[in-house]
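In the laboratory, one determines a bound structure by crystallizing the protein with its ligand and collecting diffraction data. In a computational setting the workflow is compressed into a single prediction: the sequence and the ligand go in, and a structural description comes out. We illustrate the idea with zinc ion.
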Amino acid sequence: MIKKFYITTPIYYVNDKPHLGHAYTTIAADILARYHRFIGDEVFFLTGTDEHGAKVAKSAEKVGKTPKQFCDEISALYTSLWDALNISNNDFIRTTDQRHEIGAKKFIEKLREADAIYEGSYEGLYCTGCEKFLTEKELVDGKCPDHKICPDKISEKNYFFKLDKYAKKVQELIEKDKIKIEPENIRSEVLGLFKQELENFSVSREKVAWGIKVPWDESQVIYVWVDALSNYITALGYGSSNDANFKKYWPTDLHLMGKDIIKFHAIYWPAMLLAAKLAVPKHIFANGYFTVNGQKMSKTIGNVIDPNDLVKKYGSDAARFLIISQFPFGQDGDVKAEKFDEQFNANLANGLGNLVSRVTAMYLKLDLKKCKGKVLENKEVVRLVTNAWKNYEKFMEENKIDQSLKTTFSLVKFANEYISVEKPWELFGKDDEKCALVLCNLIEIIRHIAWMIYPFLPETAENILTQFSMWDEESKLEYAKLKKWKRFDLDLQVKKAQALFPRI
Ligand SMILES: [Zn+2]
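The predicted complex, in C-alpha coordinate form:
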Protein backbone atom coordinates (compact mmCIF):
# COMPACT_ATOMS: atom_id res chain seq x y z
CA MET A 1 0.00 0.00 0.00
CA ILE A 2 1.22 3.46 -0.80
CA LYS A 3 1.91 5.52 2.27
CA LYS A 4 0.91 9.14 2.48
CA PHE A 5 3.26 11.69 3.92
CA TYR A 6 2.02 15.15 4.86
CA ILE A 7 4.84 17.52 5.80
CA THR A 8 4.66 21.21 6.69
CA THR A 9 6.88 24.14 7.52
CA PRO A 10 5.41 26.87 9.67
CA ILE A 11 3.80 29.60 7.62
CA TYR A 12 6.18 32.53 7.88
CA TYR A 13 5.13 35.85 9.31
CA VAL A 14 5.26 38.53 6.63
CA ASN A 15 6.52 41.13 9.06
CA ASP A 16 9.98 39.97 8.12
CA LYS A 17 11.70 39.34 4.81
CA PRO A 18 12.87 35.76 4.35
CA HIS A 19 16.21 35.09 6.00
CA LEU A 20 18.48 32.16 6.66
CA GLY A 21 16.27 30.75 9.43
CA HIS A 22 13.28 30.44 7.10
CA ALA A 23 15.46 28.93 4.40
CA TYR A 24 16.93 26.42 6.83
CA THR A 25 13.60 24.93 7.92
CA THR A 26 12.17 25.02 4.40
CA ILE A 27 15.17 23.31 2.78
CA ALA A 28 15.04 20.63 5.48
CA ALA A 29 11.34 20.07 4.77
CA ASP A 30 12.07 19.94 1.06
CA ILE A 31 14.78 17.32 1.51
CA LEU A 32 12.41 15.14 3.53
CA ALA A 33 9.55 15.68 1.07
CA ARG A 34 11.80 14.73 -1.86
CA TYR A 35 13.11 11.72 0.02
CA HIS A 36 9.62 10.46 0.77
CA ARG A 37 8.57 10.90 -2.88
CA PHE A 38 11.77 9.10 -3.85
CA ILE A 39 10.94 6.04 -1.73
CA GLY A 40 7.42 5.97 -3.17
CA ASP A 41 5.25 7.77 -0.60
CA GLU A 42 2.46 10.05 -1.68
CA VAL A 43 3.68 13.37 -0.40
CA PHE A 44 1.93 16.63 0.30
CA PHE A 45 4.37 19.36 1.22
CA LEU A 46 2.93 22.63 2.46
CA THR A 47 4.46 26.00 3.21
CA GLY A 48 3.06 29.54 3.11
CA THR A 49 2.81 32.92 4.77
CA ASP A 50 1.08 34.16 7.90
CA GLU A 51 -0.32 37.59 7.11
CA HIS A 52 -2.68 38.94 9.77
CA GLY A 53 -2.23 40.74 13.06
CA ALA A 54 -1.61 44.18 14.47
CA LYS A 55 2.11 43.99 13.77
CA VAL A 56 1.59 43.55 10.03
CA ALA A 57 -0.94 46.39 9.93
CA LYS A 58 1.56 48.65 11.70
CA SER A 59 4.40 47.73 9.36
CA ALA A 60 2.22 48.38 6.33
CA GLU A 61 1.19 51.77 7.67
CA LYS A 62 4.81 52.71 8.26
CA VAL A 63 5.60 52.29 4.58
CA GLY A 64 2.35 53.84 3.42
CA LYS A 65 0.71 50.71 2.09
CA THR A 66 -2.49 48.86 2.72
CA PRO A 67 -1.97 45.66 4.72
CA LYS A 68 -2.95 43.57 1.68
CA GLN A 69 -0.46 45.35 -0.63
CA PHE A 70 2.21 44.93 1.99
CA CYS A 71 1.44 41.20 2.38
CA ASP A 72 1.39 40.61 -1.37
CA GLU A 73 4.87 42.06 -1.68
CA ILE A 74 6.46 40.20 1.20
CA SER A 75 4.71 36.93 0.40
CA ALA A 76 6.11 37.16 -3.14
CA LEU A 77 9.63 37.40 -1.67
CA TYR A 78 9.05 34.02 -0.08
CA THR A 79 7.72 32.34 -3.20
CA SER A 80 10.57 33.70 -5.31
CA LEU A 81 13.14 32.52 -2.79
CA TRP A 82 11.57 29.05 -2.75
CA ASP A 83 11.78 28.99 -6.54
CA ALA A 84 15.43 29.99 -6.40
CA LEU A 85 16.14 27.25 -3.87
CA ASN A 86 14.22 24.67 -5.90
CA ILE A 87 11.71 23.98 -3.13
CA SER A 88 9.18 21.37 -4.22
CA ASN A 89 6.17 22.37 -2.12
CA ASN A 90 2.80 21.13 -3.39
CA ASP A 91 0.96 24.17 -2.13
CA PHE A 92 1.58 27.63 -0.78
CA ILE A 93 -1.09 28.90 1.58
CA ARG A 94 -1.59 32.52 2.54
CA THR A 95 -3.81 33.36 5.47
CA THR A 96 -5.35 36.10 3.33
CA ASP A 97 -6.51 33.47 0.82
CA GLN A 98 -10.26 33.16 0.73
CA ARG A 99 -10.02 29.38 1.04
CA HIS A 100 -8.13 29.86 4.29
CA GLU A 101 -10.65 32.32 5.66
CA ILE A 102 -13.50 29.88 5.02
CA GLY A 103 -11.70 27.04 6.77
CA ALA A 104 -10.44 29.13 9.69
CA LYS A 105 -13.99 30.37 10.39
CA LYS A 106 -15.32 26.85 10.22
CA PHE A 107 -12.66 25.68 12.64
CA ILE A 108 -13.42 28.30 15.28
CA GLU A 109 -17.15 27.58 14.88
CA LYS A 110 -16.42 23.93 15.62
CA LEU A 111 -14.58 24.92 18.80
CA ARG A 112 -17.58 26.95 19.86
CA GLU A 113 -20.04 24.16 19.08
CA ALA A 114 -17.91 21.83 21.20
CA ASP A 115 -18.34 24.26 24.09
CA ALA A 116 -14.58 24.81 24.15
CA ILE A 117 -14.90 28.59 23.98
CA TYR A 118 -16.19 31.17 26.45
CA GLU A 119 -16.42 34.92 26.54
CA GLY A 120 -14.19 36.73 28.96
CA SER A 121 -12.11 39.78 29.35
CA TYR A 122 -8.42 40.03 29.15
CA GLU A 123 -6.52 42.46 31.24
CA GLY A 124 -2.82 42.25 31.04
CA LEU A 125 0.23 42.48 28.91
CA TYR A 126 0.63 41.96 25.22
CA CYS A 127 3.78 42.17 23.11
CA THR A 128 2.96 43.12 19.54
CA GLY A 129 6.47 42.02 18.57
CA CYS A 130 5.64 38.46 19.60
CA GLU A 131 1.90 38.75 18.92
CA LYS A 132 1.69 37.08 22.31
CA PHE A 133 0.08 37.66 25.69
CA LEU A 134 2.77 37.83 28.35
CA THR A 135 2.74 37.36 32.09
CA GLU A 136 4.74 39.47 34.57
CA LYS A 137 6.93 36.43 35.21
CA GLU A 138 8.06 36.31 31.62
CA LEU A 139 9.37 39.89 31.60
CA VAL A 140 12.98 40.89 32.11
CA ASP A 141 13.31 44.37 33.67
CA GLY A 142 9.69 44.97 32.73
CA LYS A 143 10.39 44.26 29.07
CA CYS A 144 9.71 41.47 26.60
CA PRO A 145 12.91 39.40 26.69
CA ASP A 146 12.84 38.90 22.92
CA HIS A 147 11.95 42.39 21.78
CA LYS A 148 13.37 44.50 24.63
CA ILE A 149 10.26 46.64 24.57
CA CYS A 150 7.67 47.24 27.27
CA PRO A 151 4.56 45.24 26.41
CA ASP A 152 1.25 47.07 25.99
CA LYS A 153 -1.21 46.98 28.86
CA ILE A 154 -4.44 45.93 27.28
CA SER A 155 -7.93 45.47 28.55
CA GLU A 156 -10.43 44.02 26.13
CA LYS A 157 -13.13 41.50 25.55
CA ASN A 158 -11.80 38.19 24.19
CA TYR A 159 -13.07 34.76 23.54
CA PHE A 160 -11.04 32.16 25.36
CA PHE A 161 -10.24 28.55 24.67
CA LYS A 162 -10.71 26.09 27.54
CA LEU A 163 -7.24 24.65 27.51
CA ASP A 164 -7.81 23.23 31.00
CA LYS A 165 -10.38 20.87 29.53
CA TYR A 166 -7.91 19.30 27.05
CA ALA A 167 -4.42 19.78 28.48
CA LYS A 168 -4.38 16.48 30.36
CA LYS A 169 -5.26 14.55 27.22
CA VAL A 170 -2.58 16.35 25.17
CA GLN A 171 -0.02 15.57 27.85
CA GLU A 172 -0.97 11.89 27.72
CA LEU A 173 -0.70 11.79 23.94
CA ILE A 174 2.79 13.29 24.12
CA GLU A 175 3.87 10.94 26.90
CA LYS A 176 2.73 7.96 24.88
CA ASP A 177 4.39 9.34 21.74
CA LYS A 178 1.03 9.42 19.96
CA ILE A 179 2.18 12.94 19.31
CA LYS A 180 5.87 12.34 18.91
CA ILE A 181 7.95 15.35 19.77
CA GLU A 182 11.58 15.57 18.80
CA PRO A 183 14.35 16.20 19.59
CA GLU A 184 14.24 14.70 23.08
CA ASN A 185 15.27 17.90 24.91
CA ILE A 186 12.35 19.77 23.32
CA ARG A 187 9.97 16.96 24.29
CA SER A 188 11.12 17.29 27.92
CA GLU A 189 10.66 21.05 27.78
CA VAL A 190 7.12 20.64 26.49
CA LEU A 191 6.26 18.04 29.13
CA GLY A 192 7.70 20.45 31.70
CA LEU A 193 5.18 23.09 30.63
CA PHE A 194 2.30 20.87 31.80
CA LYS A 195 3.71 20.95 35.32
CA GLN A 196 3.27 24.70 35.43
CA GLU A 197 -0.19 26.09 35.24
CA LEU A 198 -1.27 26.34 31.63
CA GLU A 199 -3.70 29.20 31.29
CA ASN A 200 -6.69 29.28 29.00
CA PHE A 201 -5.79 31.40 26.02
CA SER A 202 -7.50 33.99 23.88
CA VAL A 203 -8.67 32.91 20.48
CA SER A 204 -9.82 36.38 19.44
CA ARG A 205 -8.80 40.01 19.67
CA GLU A 206 -10.86 43.12 19.97
CA LYS A 207 -9.64 46.39 18.44
CA VAL A 208 -7.48 44.65 15.87
CA ALA A 209 -8.76 45.36 12.39
CA TRP A 210 -6.43 43.28 10.21
CA GLY A 211 -7.67 39.73 10.61
CA ILE A 212 -10.43 37.23 10.02
CA LYS A 213 -13.67 38.18 11.72
CA VAL A 214 -15.06 35.85 14.36
CA PRO A 215 -18.16 34.47 12.59
CA TRP A 216 -20.62 34.97 15.47
CA ASP A 217 -19.21 38.28 16.70
CA GLU A 218 -17.85 40.64 14.09
CA SER A 219 -16.43 43.00 16.68
CA GLN A 220 -13.65 40.47 17.10
CA VAL A 221 -11.00 38.99 14.83
CA ILE A 222 -9.54 35.53 15.24
CA TYR A 223 -6.30 35.70 17.20
CA VAL A 224 -3.43 35.54 14.74
CA TRP A 225 -1.98 32.33 16.20
CA VAL A 226 -5.26 30.44 15.97
CA ASP A 227 -5.70 31.83 12.47
CA ALA A 228 -2.17 30.72 11.52
CA LEU A 229 -2.26 27.22 13.00
CA SER A 230 -5.43 26.37 11.16
CA ASN A 231 -3.55 26.76 7.84
CA TYR A 232 -2.44 23.15 8.19
CA ILE A 233 -6.02 22.00 7.65
CA THR A 234 -7.44 24.83 5.54
CA ALA A 235 -4.79 24.25 2.85
CA LEU A 236 -6.15 20.72 2.51
CA GLY A 237 -9.65 22.05 1.94
CA TYR A 238 -11.01 21.66 5.48
CA GLY A 239 -14.38 23.33 5.77
CA SER A 240 -14.89 23.59 2.02
CA SER A 241 -16.82 21.47 -0.44
CA ASN A 242 -13.55 20.25 -1.88
CA ASP A 243 -11.95 18.48 1.07
CA ALA A 244 -10.55 15.40 -0.71
CA ASN A 245 -7.01 16.34 0.27
CA PHE A 246 -8.07 16.79 3.86
CA LYS A 247 -9.55 13.31 3.91
CA LYS A 248 -6.47 11.89 2.25
CA TYR A 249 -3.63 13.65 4.03
CA TRP A 250 -4.75 14.72 7.50
CA PRO A 251 -3.27 14.28 10.13
CA THR A 252 0.18 15.71 9.55
CA ASP A 253 2.97 13.20 9.47
CA LEU A 254 5.53 15.85 10.25
CA HIS A 255 5.25 19.46 11.41
CA LEU A 256 8.67 21.13 11.16
CA MET A 257 9.46 24.42 12.87
CA GLY A 258 11.96 26.43 14.86
CA LYS A 259 11.81 25.65 18.55
CA ASP A 260 10.60 29.15 19.50
CA ILE A 261 7.07 28.25 18.41
CA ILE A 262 6.92 24.76 19.88
CA LYS A 263 4.37 25.58 22.61
CA PHE A 264 1.79 26.67 20.05
CA HIS A 265 2.30 23.55 17.97
CA ALA A 266 2.74 20.94 20.69
CA ILE A 267 0.10 22.14 23.17
CA TYR A 268 -2.38 24.70 21.81
CA TRP A 269 -2.77 23.14 18.38
CA PRO A 270 -3.44 19.54 19.47
CA ALA A 271 -5.78 20.80 22.22
CA MET A 272 -7.86 22.72 19.69
CA LEU A 273 -7.87 19.76 17.31
CA LEU A 274 -9.13 17.50 20.08
CA ALA A 275 -11.92 19.97 20.80
CA ALA A 276 -12.85 20.08 17.11
CA LYS A 277 -12.79 16.26 17.07
CA LEU A 278 -10.00 16.11 14.53
CA ALA A 279 -6.95 13.87 14.56
CA VAL A 280 -3.79 15.27 16.13
CA PRO A 281 -0.40 15.60 14.38
CA LYS A 282 1.70 12.46 14.48
CA HIS A 283 5.06 14.06 14.73
CA ILE A 284 6.42 17.47 15.62
CA PHE A 285 10.07 18.23 15.06
CA ALA A 286 11.76 21.44 16.16
CA ASN A 287 15.05 22.63 14.76
CA GLY A 288 17.39 24.68 16.92
CA TYR A 289 18.61 28.24 16.96
CA PHE A 290 21.73 29.26 15.19
CA THR A 291 24.37 31.89 15.33
CA VAL A 292 26.35 33.21 12.37
CA ASN A 293 30.10 33.20 12.82
CA GLY A 294 29.55 32.74 16.53
CA GLN A 295 27.14 35.66 16.95
CA LYS A 296 23.39 36.04 16.96
CA MET A 297 22.20 37.10 13.50
CA SER A 298 21.33 40.79 13.69
CA LYS A 299 21.17 43.84 11.50
CA THR A 300 23.36 45.85 13.89
CA ILE A 301 26.19 43.33 13.75
CA GLY A 302 25.65 43.12 10.01
CA ASN A 303 25.85 39.34 9.82
CA VAL A 304 22.36 38.77 8.44
CA ILE A 305 22.58 36.34 5.53
CA ASP A 306 20.18 36.72 2.63
CA PRO A 307 19.71 33.24 1.14
CA ASN A 308 19.23 34.88 -2.28
CA ASP A 309 22.86 36.02 -2.15
CA LEU A 310 23.96 32.45 -1.52
CA VAL A 311 22.01 31.22 -4.53
CA LYS A 312 23.53 33.96 -6.69
CA LYS A 313 27.05 33.16 -5.63
CA TYR A 314 27.02 29.37 -5.33
CA GLY A 315 23.96 28.21 -7.25
CA SER A 316 20.81 26.63 -5.90
CA ASP A 317 22.13 23.17 -5.03
CA ALA A 318 25.30 24.42 -3.39
CA ALA A 319 23.32 26.98 -1.36
CA ARG A 320 21.10 24.14 -0.12
CA PHE A 321 24.20 22.13 0.75
CA LEU A 322 25.91 24.97 2.60
CA ILE A 323 22.81 25.86 4.60
CA ILE A 324 21.87 22.35 5.67
CA SER A 325 25.31 20.86 6.37
CA GLN A 326 26.43 23.33 9.02
CA PHE A 327 25.40 21.45 12.16
CA PRO A 328 23.20 18.53 13.27
CA PHE A 329 19.56 19.06 12.36
CA GLY A 330 17.49 19.59 15.51
CA GLN A 331 20.30 21.09 17.57
CA ASP A 332 21.55 24.62 18.07
CA GLY A 333 24.62 25.43 16.06
CA ASP A 334 26.83 27.95 14.39
CA VAL A 335 26.74 28.81 10.70
CA LYS A 336 30.30 29.42 9.62
CA ALA A 337 29.52 31.85 6.86
CA GLU A 338 33.16 32.93 6.65
CA LYS A 339 33.97 29.35 5.67
CA PHE A 340 31.37 28.95 2.91
CA ASP A 341 33.98 29.25 0.13
CA GLU A 342 36.23 26.75 1.85
CA GLN A 343 33.36 24.29 2.40
CA PHE A 344 32.19 24.73 -1.16
CA ASN A 345 35.64 24.00 -2.56
CA ALA A 346 36.41 21.10 -0.24
CA ASN A 347 33.13 19.21 -0.53
CA LEU A 348 31.62 20.18 -3.84
CA ALA A 349 34.38 21.39 -6.17
CA ASN A 350 37.25 19.15 -5.04
CA GLY A 351 35.14 16.38 -3.55
CA LEU A 352 32.13 15.52 -5.65
CA GLY A 353 32.80 17.65 -8.75
CA ASN A 354 36.37 16.50 -9.13
CA LEU A 355 35.43 12.85 -8.64
CA VAL A 356 32.90 12.98 -11.45
CA SER A 357 35.17 14.83 -13.86
CA ARG A 358 38.21 12.61 -13.21
CA VAL A 359 36.28 9.40 -13.67
CA THR A 360 34.62 10.71 -16.83
CA ALA A 361 37.94 11.76 -18.35
CA MET A 362 39.60 8.42 -17.59
CA TYR A 363 36.69 6.36 -18.82
CA LEU A 364 36.69 8.24 -22.12
CA LYS A 365 40.38 7.47 -22.50
CA LEU A 366 39.93 3.76 -21.92
CA ASP A 367 40.21 1.54 -24.97
CA LEU A 368 37.06 -0.50 -24.51
CA LYS A 369 37.88 -2.95 -27.28
CA LYS A 370 40.65 -4.40 -25.19
CA CYS A 371 38.34 -5.25 -22.31
CA LYS A 372 36.39 -8.42 -22.77
CA GLY A 373 33.00 -9.33 -21.32
CA LYS A 374 31.43 -7.94 -18.20
CA VAL A 375 33.41 -6.30 -15.53
CA LEU A 376 33.35 -7.88 -12.12
CA GLU A 377 32.67 -5.82 -9.08
CA ASN A 378 34.89 -5.50 -6.11
CA LYS A 379 33.06 -7.21 -3.22
CA GLU A 380 34.39 -4.84 -0.62
CA VAL A 381 33.14 -1.87 -2.56
CA VAL A 382 29.70 -3.43 -2.89
CA ARG A 383 29.53 -4.03 0.84
CA LEU A 384 30.56 -0.46 1.50
CA VAL A 385 27.86 0.96 -0.74
CA THR A 386 25.17 -1.36 0.65
CA ASN A 387 26.04 -0.29 4.18
CA ALA A 388 26.02 3.34 3.18
CA TRP A 389 22.43 2.96 1.94
CA LYS A 390 21.40 1.33 5.22
CA ASN A 391 22.80 4.20 7.23
CA TYR A 392 21.45 6.77 4.84
CA GLU A 393 17.91 5.40 5.18
CA LYS A 394 18.09 5.01 8.92
CA PHE A 395 19.15 8.63 9.32
CA MET A 396 16.48 9.84 6.91
CA GLU A 397 13.77 7.99 8.81
CA GLU A 398 15.03 9.63 12.01
CA ASN A 399 15.06 13.05 10.29
CA LYS A 400 18.82 13.24 10.81
CA ILE A 401 19.23 14.65 7.35
CA ASP A 402 22.69 16.09 7.91
CA GLN A 403 23.85 12.56 8.86
CA SER A 404 22.47 11.12 5.63
CA LEU A 405 24.34 13.78 3.73
CA LYS A 406 27.52 12.97 5.66
CA THR A 407 27.10 9.29 4.84
CA THR A 408 26.84 10.17 1.17
CA PHE A 409 29.93 12.35 1.27
CA SER A 410 31.87 9.60 3.00
CA LEU A 411 31.34 7.62 -0.23
CA VAL A 412 32.69 10.57 -2.21
CA LYS A 413 35.75 10.53 -0.02
CA PHE A 414 36.12 6.79 -0.39
CA ALA A 415 35.86 6.98 -4.19
CA ASN A 416 38.53 9.66 -4.38
CA GLU A 417 40.82 7.56 -2.19
CA TYR A 418 40.08 4.48 -4.30
CA ILE A 419 41.35 6.38 -7.33
CA SER A 420 44.55 7.36 -5.51
CA VAL A 421 45.18 3.78 -4.40
CA GLU A 422 44.35 2.04 -7.69
CA LYS A 423 45.93 4.70 -9.92
CA PRO A 424 43.90 3.77 -13.03
CA TRP A 425 45.97 6.15 -15.14
CA GLU A 426 48.98 3.86 -14.65
CA LEU A 427 46.98 0.88 -15.89
CA PHE A 428 46.17 2.24 -19.35
CA GLY A 429 47.75 0.00 -21.98
CA LYS A 430 49.28 -2.26 -19.33
CA ASP A 431 46.28 -3.86 -17.72
CA ASP A 432 43.19 -2.52 -19.44
CA GLU A 433 40.95 -5.12 -17.85
CA LYS A 434 41.88 -4.06 -14.36
CA CYS A 435 41.57 -0.46 -15.43
CA ALA A 436 38.05 -1.12 -16.66
CA LEU A 437 37.19 -2.84 -13.39
CA VAL A 438 38.31 0.14 -11.35
CA LEU A 439 36.55 2.68 -13.54
CA CYS A 440 33.30 0.74 -13.72
CA ASN A 441 33.30 0.37 -9.95
CA LEU A 442 33.84 4.08 -9.69
CA ILE A 443 31.00 4.89 -12.06
CA GLU A 444 28.71 2.61 -10.12
CA ILE A 445 29.70 4.32 -6.84
CA ILE A 446 29.00 7.67 -8.47
CA ARG A 447 25.57 6.41 -9.57
CA HIS A 448 24.76 5.56 -5.95
CA ILE A 449 26.08 8.89 -4.74
CA ALA A 450 23.91 10.66 -7.31
CA TRP A 451 20.76 8.94 -6.06
CA MET A 452 21.66 9.60 -2.44
CA ILE A 453 22.12 13.30 -3.05
CA TYR A 454 18.97 13.47 -5.15
CA PRO A 455 16.76 14.82 -2.30
CA PHE A 456 19.51 17.26 -1.28
CA LEU A 457 20.98 18.46 -4.58
CA PRO A 458 18.34 17.53 -7.15
CA GLU A 459 19.88 19.37 -10.11
CA THR A 460 23.34 17.96 -9.50
CA ALA A 461 21.98 14.43 -9.22
CA GLU A 462 20.21 14.78 -12.55
CA ASN A 463 23.31 16.30 -14.18
CA ILE A 464 25.54 13.46 -13.05
CA LEU A 465 23.13 10.74 -14.13
CA THR A 466 22.60 12.47 -17.48
CA GLN A 467 26.33 12.62 -18.00
CA PHE A 468 26.47 8.82 -17.67
CA SER A 469 23.35 8.38 -19.84
CA MET A 470 21.46 6.92 -16.90
CA TRP A 471 18.88 9.57 -16.10
CA ASP A 472 16.24 8.74 -18.70
CA GLU A 473 16.02 5.11 -17.77
CA GLU A 474 16.75 5.22 -14.06
CA SER A 475 14.45 8.05 -13.11
CA LYS A 476 11.55 5.77 -13.99
CA LEU A 477 12.77 2.96 -11.78
CA GLU A 478 11.57 2.15 -8.32
CA TYR A 479 13.65 3.10 -5.35
CA ALA A 480 14.31 -0.54 -4.38
CA LYS A 481 15.90 -1.14 -7.79
CA LEU A 482 17.91 2.05 -7.85
CA LYS A 483 19.78 1.32 -4.67
CA LYS A 484 20.91 -2.15 -5.75
CA TRP A 485 24.47 -2.62 -6.97
CA LYS A 486 24.44 -2.97 -10.73
CA ARG A 487 26.95 -4.63 -12.98
CA PHE A 488 26.97 -3.00 -16.37
CA ASP A 489 28.42 -3.68 -19.78
CA LEU A 490 31.21 -1.60 -21.12
CA ASP A 491 29.08 0.16 -23.67
CA LEU A 492 28.08 2.96 -21.37
CA GLN A 493 27.70 6.26 -23.17
CA VAL A 494 29.62 8.77 -21.13
CA LYS A 495 29.51 12.41 -22.08
CA LYS A 496 32.03 15.04 -21.33
CA ALA A 497 30.38 17.75 -19.33
CA GLN A 498 31.13 21.05 -17.70
CA ALA A 499 32.47 21.01 -14.18
CA LEU A 500 29.61 20.55 -11.72
CA PHE A 501 31.02 23.01 -9.22
CA PRO A 502 33.72 25.32 -10.60
CA ARG A 503 36.15 26.20 -7.83
CA ILE A 504 35.71 29.55 -6.14
ZN1 LIG B 1 8.05 40.28 22.25
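The longest helix spans residues 340-365. Keep in mind that any predicted model is a hypothesis to be tested, not a measurement.
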